[in-house]
TrEMBL record:
This is Cellulose binding domain-containing protein. Residues 1-25 form the signal peptide. Keywords: Carbohydrate metabolism, Glycosidase, Hydrolase, Polysaccharide degradation, Signal. It comes from Nonomuraea insulae. InterPro entries: CBD2 (IPR001919), CBM2/CBM3_carb-bd_dom_sf (IPR008965), CBM2_carb-bd_dom_sf (IPR012291), ConA-like_dom_sf (IPR013320), FN3_dom (IPR003961), FN3_sf (IPR036116), GH11/12 (IPR013319), GH12 (IPR002594). Residues 350-452 form the CBM2 domain. Residues 261-350 form the Fibronectin type-III domain. Residues 250-279 are annotated as: Disordered. Belongs to the glycosyl hydrolase 12 (cellulase H) family. It comes from the Bacteria.
Length: 452
């Protein structure tokens, strides 16, 4: 089982003063929900023993960190952790730092420049993870439980533990490769687990949040409420330490280094009205946040789409027309790479006596983690019979087709290719259908259907 990371700190307890923060910063915190400010209130350090009654003490570093000096935890690894001792900027159950500028809407111009860094020390014993916990809410909340998204960034872990939900993919972000996990426990939990452990990290918040948005788990309209860095111990925990932590606009550093030039693009699956482009990944000193697809029919290239992956299907093209494409990469600080080499694509002639074919999908039903699309109607708009037809569409990240009827299909790089089981007469129609699963809380269905 996967642990449910739920910070069950009840705001009413703070309001009554039972768990109120001490008036002055204390060098050692042993109270379950004890807290202290550091750097004149710029950050808050919390003991936060929310999942157990065992002892835990942390030694607060006024320079901006803490060390776990005592931890008597011994929890089963198939459940929730004992605690989350952390340092943070922003607000956590009405306990707010000063000068953070949070809450801040993720769609604001200031959000893209928000940067954070951390340096940690790990013991060789115990069962724990070392992770950022970054919270988003649909409202500018300063108290209570956030209900938008919880973005966890695991720098390291020890023992047989894993995040909420299930793995839905991988990502290359902030100079590392990460497993991407997603689950829903009343809000979306999106966890990034580094495939090679690190003791330090420096990144823009948008690096990971943009990836979560692209997967359908978060929204630009939501508000960042807190940025926390700490540890989730199940067993032991003494020796875990945050040596330094920073948060702010630029985080004291400015990223002015653009990503490398994307690898040469290529085109495949070209029809009368679409083509699929693929290219080699770029690298960046912090992390590539996405790619822009540029298209030209004359001398000027303009952006027509993009995303976080290294492929893109451009649809709505004209038959028998030549297009040129280039790719550029971007990072979370807004730096753009140089444009890639050019690939030239000529779409096919319209089939079926000049009429071609058309495809119309219908969503029959959806549920929390799946859906049925039927009928997907394919129509020969021409005056001549089609000996065969092909329909392509994009399958969102984390989605899997579990069955298809009245047609055969293949999946490559997130693109589904459906092929006919027979000919289609002039002005005639046929249909197929399919069922698919998707991650809990993801409301996407496939888009970008094209027919050739």
């Amino acid at each position: 089982m996967r642990h449910a990371h739920i910070h069950l700190i009840i705001a009413a307890l703070f309001a009554t003063g039972l768990f109120a923060a001490p008036a002055q910063a204390a060098p050692v915190l042993c109270e379950k929900f004890g807290s202290a400010t550091v750097q004149n209130g710029r950050y808050v350090v919390i003991n936060n023993v929310w999942g157990a009654d065992t002892a835990q003490c942390i030694d607060v570093n006024q320079n901006g960190g803490f060390a776990v000096t005592q931890a008597a935890h011994n929890k089963a690894t198939n459940g929730a952790p004992a605690s989350y001792p952390a340092i943070y900027a922003g607000c956590h159950y009405a306990n707010c730092s000063t000068g953070s500028g949070l809450p801040m809407q993720a769609g604001s111009s200031s959000f893209n420049s928000l940067r954070t860094s951390v340096s940690m020390t790990y013991p060789s014993s115990g069962v724990w993870d070392a992770a950022y916990d970054i919270w988003f809410d649909p409202t500018p909340r300063t108290d209570g439980q956030n209900t938008g998204a919880e973005v966890m960034i695991w720098l390291n872990k020890q023992g047989s533990i894993q995040p909420v939900g299930s793995q839905v993919g991988t990502a290359t972000l902030a100079g590392g490769t990460w497993q991407v996990w997603q689950g829903n426990i009343g809000w979306n939990v999106i966890s990034y687990v580094r495939t090679s452990a690190t003791s330090s990290l420096d990144f823009t918040i948008n690096t990971f949040y943009a990836d979560a948005i692209s997967r359908g788990y978060a929204q630009r309209s939501w508000y960042l409420t807190s940025v926390q860095a700490g540890f989730e111990p199940w067993v032991g925990g003494a020796g875990l330490a945050v040596n330094s932590f920073s948060f702010g606009s630029g985080g004291g550093q400015t990223d002015s280094t653009p990503p490398s030039v994307p690898g040469n693009p290529s085109a495949s699956g070209t029809t009368s009205n679409s083509t699929t482009l693929s290219w080699g990944a770029s690298s960046d000193n912090v992390g590539v946040s996405g790619y822009d697809v540029l298209r030209a029919t004359g001398d000027t290239f303009t952006r027509v789409g993009g995303g976080t992956g290294t492929s893109y299907t451009d649809s709505g093209l004209s038959p028998a027309t030549t297009y040129r494409y280039r790719i550029r990469a971007r990072d979370a600080a807004g730096n753009l790479s140089s444009e890639s080499a050019t690939v030239t694509v000529t779409t096919q002639q319209g089939g079926g006596g000049g009429g071609g074919c058309a495809v119309t999908p219908t969503t029959q039903t959806t549920w929390n983690n799946g859906y049925v699309i039927q009928p997907v109607t394919v129509t020969n708009r021409g005056t001549s019979a089609l000996s065969s037809w092909t329909v392509t569409f994009a399958l969102p990240s984390g989605h899997t087709i579990t069955g298809m009827w009245n047609a055969s299909y293949t999946v490559s790089g997130g693109t589904v290719t459906v092929r006919s089981n027979g000919a289609l007469g002039p002005n005639a129609s046929t249909s197929f259908g399919y069922q698919a699963t998707r991650p809990n809380g993801n409301t996407q269905v496939p888009t970008g259907y094209t027919c050739a």
